[in-house]
Design brief:
The complex is a heterotrimer of chains A (about 230), B (about 220) and C (about 220). Chain A is about 80% helix and about 0% strand. With about 230 residues, chain A is mainly alpha-helical. In chain A, helix 1 (about 1-25) packs antiparallel against helix 6 (about 185-225). The radius of gyration of chain A is 20 Å and the shape is globular. Chain C has one domain (about 1-220). Classes of the chains: A mainly alpha (about 230), B alpha/beta (about 220), C mainly alpha (about 220). The interface of A and C includes residues 120, 131, 147, 150 and 151 of A.
Chain lengths: ~230, ~220, ~220
């Protein structure tokens, strides 16, 4: 609790700083792509969000596993807090992807492997969130969610593989090439800045959520004691 | 003679402390009777002894060996009777009973033994009746017959006398007495006096939860 | 081993005597497939093109239908507590229940499939491989589904929740199942698809009972 209070303003400040710097580079101080023109600037939101969507899932599954095996309450809270943030990043990825896809491919949505995998990831997040809130006893929900998150962790590579396979069967893979394999330094700088800004934002929101969760737990404990007449 | 004991047992339900630092010992032929008001943790303790609920602290030992080391061995030596009677409505009484007997690995359990178990609780005449036609008391007696049918050293009975009439409580007592005479142990929770011989009484009100542990972060 | 056989026999007996679950699943399967010609039109070529996918998706939805009951009945009448405190390991018990579940709901789907393939005008060279992939895929569906069925015990709105949990996990099976049939109809070998399906089954076979047993233990605490 004390540690989180100390870290909170730093994470928040870092988010603002990196975010503003990243956006400045992304919007004003980087060249338009020779093929994609100005729309390439969507990438600076899209790609870091996509990275974060996976990163949050891995963090969520690992902390859920830690919570399940070593019964550490902080790990449970971290898993629960990560899920909505990860889901939000996934939604940002999908929507920014659609905005990018419209001028590039002429369609809002194509059943491309990456898009489909991202969509499935969103469903995994939503399933986890629905499951942990479906029980009267919040601890039971967290435990059930932990099993699901771990099963999902095994499944994510399988789903990724199968979806890749599926699209190569149906359409050539040439449609999507993320900004080309060799990326210029002028684009790399804002991309990395944004990536770190997103990561700092994640830490900031996660800490906020964990604090809220711990406080809610204390309120519950007080209510319980009230119900048992101990107060 | 087997000895079953627990020390320093603490039970946590959700965020609620039910009892703490509970110790008990039962030896072969002994009976431990759990008493206490509602919510004092009689059922939770029995579930803990059955291995369904992990203790938040403390250990359970059988002849000096921790039961958590060999959960399957522990399961093989216990019979648990909970709040439900788990009589399948579509299966007949005999089929219900035979299933649980077979699950307890007792392929050698003869028809004869099942038959005697049914008769000892006076449900022998119901053997071909599907479970859905049974009354609550009959279901309970079938459930108890399941316990009698396959020998196991440890009986864990949660309010076994619920829904039973006077005569059936007497039969239950006889069954428990026979089990103890053969060196078996029984832990039973109850609100009414079952009239067991020479029981050890464990009052769960003696192990109050005290202040709830703070959420430490 | 006697315990394993005893559970399979009991669950089969329960399912057969009630009878409704298996019939309901097959009815649902057939009806869903029959709806498609009304939706996309009776044009034989279109139906032939979508037949493998329609049959697979319908089989997937149908196998989910009975999933909720897999552990729920035993959970509600207390049998699950006894199964968990019986000598056989809980993973074993779960595996036996999954086998019985597949025999009563997965296998009947296979039997109804040829009829639907004819109704949907599936090219005849696809018949064999469709059955083969269903034979490999539906046990995986039962295995993965068992994890979901164990997780929702004691939850509010279990049935809806179950589909939300399980359907995303079914996607790989669907992709390779349909892919194999499409490949054969298109004149390509389906070997890789079938191998991947077998691989997924081989992974799910040990892992799913393990995960489902863990979830059941939580539900019983």
């Amino acid at each position: 609790m004390k540690l989180s209070r100390m870290l909170l303003p730093w994470a928040g400040g870092l988010t603002l700083l990196l975010g503003i710097a990243g956006l400045w580079f992304a919007l004003f101080d980087s060249p338009p792509d020779y093929q994609q023109g100005e729309t390439v600037r969507i990438m600076y939101v899209h790609v870091p969000a996509a990275w974060m969507s996976l990163f949050c899932y891995v963090v969520m599954a690992i902390s859920a596993g830690v919570g399940l095996i070593w019964k550490h309450p902080v790990a449970d809270v971290a898993a629960k807090g990560s899920a909505p943030i990860g889901a939000a990043f996934t939604i940002v990825t999908l929507i920014s992807g659609a905005f990018w896809g419209k001028p590039m491919w002429g369609k809002w949505w194509v059943w491309d492997a990456r898009l489909t995998a991202e969509l499935v990831l969103l469903f995994l997040y939503l399933g986890y969130i629905a499951l942990i809130h479906a029980f009267d006893d919040p601890k039971r929900g967290l435990k059930a969610g932990a099993v699901l998150a771990l099963v999902g962790l095994i499944n994510v590579p399988i789903i990724k593989f199968s979806v890749d396979w599926w699209t190569t069967m149906h359409q050539p893979a040439s449609v999507v090439k993320m900004g080309g394999p060799a990326i210029d330094a002028s684009m790399m700088v804002p991309l990395l800045l944004m990536a770190f800004a997103f990561k700092a934002y994640y830490i900031y929101v996660l800490l906020l959520r964990m604090r809220a969760e711990v406080t809610a737990g204390k309120v519950r404990a007080l209510r319980l004691r009230q119900a048992h007449g101990a107060v | 003679m087997a000895t079953f004991s627990g020390s320093g047992l603490t039970c946590l339900r959700g965020e609620n402390l039910v009892f703490r630092d509970l110790d008990f010992t039962v030896a072969g032929g002994g009976a431990l009777v759990l008493v206490g008001p509602n919510g004092s943790g009689k059922s939770s303790l029995l579930r803990m002894l059955a291995g369904l609920l992990g203790p938040a602290a403390g250990t359970l030992t059988w002849d000096g060996e921790a039961v958590t080391d060999e959960p399957d061995e522990h399961h093989a030596r216990l019979h648990y009777v909970g709040h439900h009677d788990c009589v399948k409505p579509i299966l007949t009484v005999a089929e219900n009973l035979a299933f649980w007997a077979r699950l307890h690995g007792s392929a050698a359990t003869s028809e004869d033994r099942l038959e005697r178990a049914l008769h000892s609780l006076d449900v022998g005449h119901l053997r071909d009746v599907p479970g859905r036609f049974l009354s609550a008391g009959q279901k309970r007696r079938v459930n108890l017959a399941r316990v009698v049918a396959v020998p196991a050293p440890l009986w864990l009975l949660d309010e076994p006398a619920t829904a039973l009439d006077r005569a059936s409580v007497g039969r239950l007592n006889d069954a428990i007495a026979a089990h103890r005479a053969a060196g078996g142990l029984v832990v039973v929770s109850t609100h009414q006096d079952l009239g067991l011989d020479d029981p050890t009484i464990l009052d769960l009100a003696d192990f109050p939860p005290g202040p709830a542990p703070g959420v430490a972060i | 081993m006697t315990g394993f056989a005893a559970i399979v026999r009991r669950d089969l007996r329960l399912a057969l005597r009630q009878g409704s679950d298996s019939t309901m699943v097959v009815m649902f399967f057939v009806l869903t497939c029959v709806l498609f010609p009304f939706g996309v039109g009776p044009e034989p070529n279109i139906l032939a093109r979508i037949a493998p996918g329609v049959i697979w998706v319908a089989a997937l939805l149908a196998s989910m239908l009975a999933l909720e009951r897999l552990f729920l009945a035993d959970y509600e009448d207390g049998s699950l507590e006894l199964l968990a405190t019986a000598p056989p390991p809980l993973e074993f018990v779960v595996a036996a229940k999954i086998l019985a579940h597949w025999l009563t709901t997965g296998l009947p789907l296979l039997i109804a499939t040829p009829l639907l393939a004819i109704l949907l005008n599936l090219p005849s060279e696809g018949f064999q491989v469709l059955i083969a992939t269903l034979l490999l895929g539906t046990p995986t569906l039962s295995l993965i589904g068992a994890i979901g069925a164990a997780l929702i015990l004691g939850a509010r709105r279990g049935g809806v929740l179950l589909s939300l949990l399980v359907l995303p996990l079914y996607i790989p099976v669907l992709i390779f199942g349909v892919g194999a049939v499409d490949a054969v109809i298109g004149g390509f070998p389906a070997r890789t698809h079938v191998l991947v399906l077998s691989g997924i089954l081989a992974v799910a076979l040990p892992l799913a009972p393990f995960a489902a047993a863990a979830a059941l233990r939580q539900a019983l605490e």
